Amino acid sequence: MSRLIVVSNRMGDPRKPAKGGLAVALNGALNEIGGVWMGWSGTITDTAPGEGQLHVVEEGKITLAGLDLNQQEHDGYYLGYSNSVLWPAFHHRTDLIESDSEAQETYKRVNRTFATRLYGLLQPDDVIWVHDYHLIPLAMELRAMGVKNRIGFFLHIPMPPSQIFSAIPEADWLMRCFYHFDVLGFQTQDDAMNFRLYAERILGEDPCSGDQIKAYGRTVTSRAFPIGIDVDQFRDLLNHPDAVELSERLELNSLQRKWVTGVERLDYSKGLPERMKVFRRLLEKYPENMRRTTLVQIAPPTREAVDAYADIRNELESLSGAVNGEFARIDWTPIRYIHRHVSRAKLAALFSISKVGLVTPLRDGMNLVAKEYVAVQPDDDPGVLVLSRFAGAAEEMDAALLVNPFDIESTADTLQRALSMSLDERKERHEALKRVVEDGDVVTWCNGFLDCLRAQR
Ligand code: GDG
């Protein structure tokens, strides 16, 4: 079978225990058939642009290729264009776009450097799988160098509707980049539909049959491949000593109490201030939760050099402080807000004991926390997933209580409904959600995409 080449902004490292499901799945696929994983090395050096060293290490059947970037490359490509233009735009926050032509040039240049360095490692038969918004122009660059290999792309974040996409500076160039791949994978049917509608509405194309979309004189296969988690690996974490110890402590602490849990990187797309307002409304409107219900919100820092992230951090600190100041009692704090990274084993333990998983992003590609929460619920007494209808996960996980996170009042009502739901209803919903999570795990996702890519040409 042809080798697999994975390219992503950061790469997994098979020498260390894989943390997320994505790294587990891609390492698994690479280990089975052999191949290369290329990404930014994580190191910033003072080399000239395009001259960063490529560190190539053989690890069994996998070749790891880590590219160094200099400060200007990192700032323009990663913080600048990727995270100050594409991330906000794709999450419907065109108001947060910080357009900067130098950053955009750097984004293009770094993608060209990735292509040039990858070229030296390629064999004619390799199948190339590119991940996420940092690397949208990579196929165009590779094609310009004469690469004929099959190249697929998976977008982990939402594909915005055509009107929003067309607000991105140089939207047409960006869209054209997509058409140099053979396969485009999206998280949901809605995302795949948005891609197709851009061709119809903005480009005036008459697209196509089935999932083949034609534009700019090229044809691409576009399809939804909803990502999943490594269910067994996540469940096994419950046996880790850290998880056992935390569960025991939480149980002691929660004889009369219910935990509601939220976990995400501190990102404005995740709806954290709205969630705290929901919790405040819950306490006002349903005072029986006083002293009995606690929101544990874990939100480790991310992309702190981007202004919008500093703003959201300040807003959250002030909101959680205000709610706690108003409602706390000497023996009870309503919101436990943790702005630090917590180990995966502890997360699993916390999820398993929480009566409600509160997953309310304003916009999210998929949202793996929703799936992790469901994976570790006890069958005999499962908690309830309250899920935003704007998370990609809502398309499959409609047995959750779906909410509109912008509507504080009705989300607070739904949270109360979750906290008081009968055991029978909880079990019924949990059975349905568990099936979705188990049937659509990360290996299914990985194989589904690769089968489709290999079937091209
Ligand atoms: C992107 C898309 C899409 C979070 N805090 C801690 C921690 N986490 C873990 C979670 C989960 C992962 O990070 C986050 O995954 P999400 O899917 O929720 O969100 P993004 O990071 O935004 O990921 C998203 C995903 O790509 C995959 O395609 O679903 O829509 O935005 O696994 O548990 N893990 C640990 N400590 C923390 O404090 N250990």
Describe the structure.
It contains 16 helices and 15 strands. It has 2 domains: 4-228 and 442-454, Glycogen Phosphorylase B (Rossmann fold, 3-Layer(aba) Sandwich); 231-439, Glycogen Phosphorylase B (Rossmann fold, 3-Layer(aba) Sandwich). The protein starts with a strand and ends with a helix. The mean pLDDT is 94. It has helices at residues 21-33, 71-90, 101-119, 138-144, 162-165, 171-178, 189-202, 231-236, 241-253, 272-285, 307-327, 344-353, 368-375, 408-419, 423-439, 442-454, and strands spanning 4-10, 35-45, 54-59, 62-70, 127-131, 150-154, 183-186, 212-215, 218-224, 258-263, 293-298, 335-338, 356-359, 384-388, 401-403. It has a 9-stranded mixed sheet with strand order 3-4-2-1-5-6-7-9-8, with helices on both faces. Strands 12-11-10-13-14-15 form a 6-stranded parallel sheet, with helices on both faces. Strand 1 (4-10), helix 1 (21-33) and strand 2 form a beta-alpha-beta unit. It has 457 residues and is of the alpha/beta class. The chain is 44% helix and 19% strand. GDP-alpha-D-glucose binds next to helix 12 and helix 13.
